[in-house]
Specification:
alpha+beta; 4-stranded mixed beta sheet; globular; about 20% strand
Length: about 150
């Protein structure tokens, strides 16, 4: 389950607005709640849905705070331009090695030509282990997702 917003108020506003407009009220359009996860990451996860470790990866990605995803587009733009100085070259190399998002588990996003998912998990030895968001007792300790870049051939 993906958390669409950090407060149910945003979800309530959206659906109440739709209901009032359907009844004839003239209101400003309320924005549809969103997860904040970049479309490129969602498309890559959709392409890899049958991969081993997908549920743990989806759980880890859903737990990254939306404000951390704001860096994603900036980081990916660094790949689109040719570096002109040492700092730009270093920034680009950092993105190519992978940028880390989230706290625990850490989600590392790398640019590439084909989607790829690598999940490191640790099974909880406790018989009363709490299940994760997607209902499994394995938890990811690290997730690496390779996101295809525009113009790359897969």
């Amino acid at each position: 389950m993906f958390q669409l917003a950090f407060s149910s108020q945003e979800i309530n506003d959206y659906y109440n607005n739709r209901d009032f407009v359907a009844r004839g009220a003239e209101l400003d359009v309320a924005l549809q709640p969103a997860s904040g996860i970049p479309d490129e990451v969602l498309r890559t996860m959709t392409a890899l849905i049958d991969s081993d470790g997908w549920t743990e990866a989806a759980d880890a990605i859903a737990n990254v705070a939306p404000r951390q995803w704001r860096r994603f587009h900036r980081d990916m733009r660094r790949l689109a331009v040719e570096p002109r100085n040492r700092n730009q070259r270093r920034s680009r190399q950092a993105v190519e090695r992978g940028i880390k998002y989230g706290v625990e588990p850490v989600v590392t996003i790398k640019p590439g030509t084909a989607p790829r998912l690598q999940v490191t998990t640790a099974a909880d030895p406790s018989p009363n282990a709490a299940t994760g968001v997607l209902g499994n007792s394995r938890s990811a300790t690290a997730v690496t997702l390779t996101v295809p870049q525009p113009g790359s051939v897969s």
